[in-house]
Amino acid sequence: MLDSKKAYNHFVLLVKERPPGDFALTLIDSLLHVLKETQETTRQGLLHEMKDNTNYLTENLINVEGLTRKSSLALHTLGRFFHHYITSKLSGLSDTSLEVIRSKLVARVEDLREFVMSSRGKVLSSALEFIKDGITIFVHGNSPLVEFLLVEAAVKHNKKFSVIVSEARPDCEGYALTKSLLAVGIAARLVVDAAVAYALEEADIVLVGAETVVETGGIINGIGTYTCALCAKMLKKPFYVVCESFKFARMYPLTQKDLPEIVKDRKTLPLFRSRETDDVTNLPVLSPLCDYTPPDLVTLLFTDMGIFTPSAVSDELIQISNA
Amino acid sequence: FFFQAEDGIRDFCLSRGLGDVYKRQGIKREILESLENLIDDFDKMTEKISENAPTHIKSNDIVVTYGESTLVQDFLVSAAKSRKFEVIVIEDELCKVGKSMCSKLEEHNIPTTFTLPTATYAIMSRANKVILSPNAIMADGGIISNSGTLLLTAAAKAHSVPVIVIAGLFKLTSNFPFSQDTFNEIKSPTDPLFVELSFPSPLTNVIVPKYDYIEPEYISLYITDAGEHTPSYIYRLFREYY
């Protein structure tokens, strides 16, 4: 009897145990758990079980406590990537014994796990060059990778720079980022979203993370990123994106309306944090969760596979899907 | 560009192994072959780049170029065989080679005008295209070229004049420049080229950068010995070449 909820249940369990934010590894671990404990005796059965579990998990990610709707997009991409990874390996194996197949698959997934774990360090090494002493970096939103990058640069590599963080309403992620930067001694300042263009005059570079990198070379990231990118282009400031390579997705949005359903609407989450909240919630609102930044606004992407120009992304995607 | 030769050695080693005099001679043969191929590539480079010159330069065009470059020279001479056009040479004040470029072009009966960089913006409204040869092509599709080139390309962009960069593929590098200073040198103002500059006061700072980094947005087309490409395709060329 196929249990497609195994991975999901394990995921929920792990999310409670682990510190928040590191969902990529948790996803791989839960799928690895399914693989290790499989009762299937045929290749097709095994593949089917993995596929069902991955699909169920990625579709129900929004129901998991502690996981924001935004991260579920990145994990969706990772799930698909994982599935492709497994399928391509399985089709390449000519062994007849399922035990052997299973152990080889487990080894391959553990390789993937290693890769995901080390991707942060690799992004750091490719991105460290552009953080020079004395520059002002403008950051939008609180990407864990951006935080890691800035903290490591200041602490381990002794770089002296200042940061301007935008509030990133309505989730106000900027508050947490500013606090953690100040904690390590980086001169960070908070600024309201409306003051992005004003603050960019002082900044030297703009740095953001990404929920997903799409085939056009553009990115899908928290709402407000598109605004920052437009201002940066206008004021001739380089717009750099840092992200891991498993966030590359085979989507081709042309307009803001082409975003995946999961990030188009915040639905029931609180939209405005203000004293007048009670009056406002009755008004009709347009409340997207993420926006799409087209490739002509992005200068460079720093990933664990190297530095890319936006036009190189689709090539890279093809290579990943053929690997 | 010695990667080609190195690959020859590496492949050979993997399949045969070292230690025998005969095999060592075999490796030597492989290296020599690779190097000969490389030299061949260099010889044919100018030919390959210049063979399409008449398609890019039309009759009665006014072509602007900067300083002196044998590659640009050969390109223009090749076009002059079947087209009548005019060239404006803008002097590279650091190297002072504009005049020799002019005289070389005139030997081939190409009408040439010589101007100083201060006139760049003024003449750009009459120019049809800009042809440059860089020092290096960067991985993002931009170029590193002699100081003063950025002025030229900025003026070209303001007047919507296409900028064509011609170079051999050996000039391709894997580096990403983040600012004007990333891959730049500051020359000493007391360099022999600068004899007339003398500042008695120690309070005056003289900054002489050697290179300019020109972003890919300023460049319209690359003509290389591997064909003609847009700046966004450079990453691909790099991957194929290396």
Question: How would you explain this protein's 3D organization?
Answer:
- The complex is a heterodimer of chains A (323) and B (242).
- Chain A contains 12 helices and 10 strands.
- Chain A has 323 residues and is α/β, with parallel strands linked by helices.
- The two termini of chain A are 32 Å apart.
- In chain A, 41% of the residues are buried.
- Chain B has 242 residues and is of the alpha/beta class.
- Helix content of chain B is 38%, strand content 18%.
- Chain B has a 7-stranded mixed β-sheet with strand order 3-2-1-4-7-11-12, with helices on both faces. A 3-stranded antiparallel β-sheet of chain B has the order 5-6-10, covered by helices on one side.
- The longest helix of chain B is centred in the first third of the chain and has 30 residues, at 21-50.
Unreliable stretches of chain A: none
Greatest chain-chain contact: A-B, 11 and 11 residues
Order of helices and strands of chain A: HHHHHEHEHEHEEEHEHHEEEH
Strand order of the largest sheet of chain B: 3-2-1-4-7-11-12
N-end to C-end Cα span of chain B: 8 Å
According to DSSP, the number of beta strands of chain A is: 10
**What string gives the helices and strands of chain B in order?**
HHHEHEHEHEEEHEEEEEEH
